[in-house]
Amino acid sequence: MNGLDWGAFALNLLWAAAAVLAVMLVTFAVAVRLGVHRVVDIAWGAAFGVVAVVTFVASAGDGNLGRRVLVTALTVVWGLRLAVHIARRGHGDGEDPRYEALLAKAPGNRDLYALRVVYLLQGALVLLVSLPVQAAQYVPADMTAFAWAGTALWAVGLFFEAVGDAQLARFKADPANRGRIMDRGLWRYTRHPNYFGDFCVWWGLFLIACDSGAAALVSVVSPLVMTFLLVRGSGKPLLERHMSERPGYAEYVARTSGFFPWPPRRRV
């Protein structure tokens, strides 16, 4: 396997880990000051942008400049959009019920428990999931069709995430929709347009790293882990369990694709 400076890449992992740890510790301090740990969700997207920028600086002279600029820009745009969206969505709200339920099980100090099982765990996931963003920047080869296909898939993902989130926010803002199920726009074709978009974004970033077999091999775990989290882990299953008691949701599930966009079934 060639096309990747393993020594430089290993050193970059240390720089990225230090950057992610700094983001999570600062976020933890802010959360303790505010008394709510939901702010860690804002740090999730921002941390990926920080990793991309740190890697861009560290990889100077090692990788292809065009690929480095491309993967950094795509990651920062995705991360900042997500962070801003989550910040706006949760503005003025109290603690997230998920964290309330989790911290209720804390054997001792709630904040220190949150640091271990929320912040440090999410930081480790950021480091793991960001492997394509890091590896791609150390590939010296010219960009090929893999990079452009990855960019196109990333764009599809960002569209589904951004448009799906905007449509849902607009739906929730209308008092007439209180208690109703969102089944319009992109939500008519998939029950989770934002999760599908996330899926596309990370497989797209992985494709950009595929101009090197070594980079592809070391980073394929990223989209696989993200896919598992979205489809089988903390994404789709938890949200659908939460929504299952709402009137009309069973009918919505029966006619609407669970993940990949597809025309709704005409008859249930």
TrEMBL record:
Q: Please indicate if the UniProt record lists Transmembrane as a keyword.
A: yes
Recorded hits in InterPro entries, A to Z, give:
UstE-like (IPR010721)
Report which residue ranges the record marks as coiled coil: none
Pfam families per the UniProt record, alphabetical = DUF1295
Transmembrane annotation, as ranges:
6-32, 39-59, 65-84, 113-133, 145-168
What does the UniProt keyword field contain?
A: Membrane, Transmembrane, Transmembrane helix
- The reply on keyword Membrane is yes
Q: GO cellular component annotations, sorted alphabetically?
A: membrane
Protein name in UniProt: DUF1295 domain-containing protein
Give the originating organism: Streptomyces chartreusis
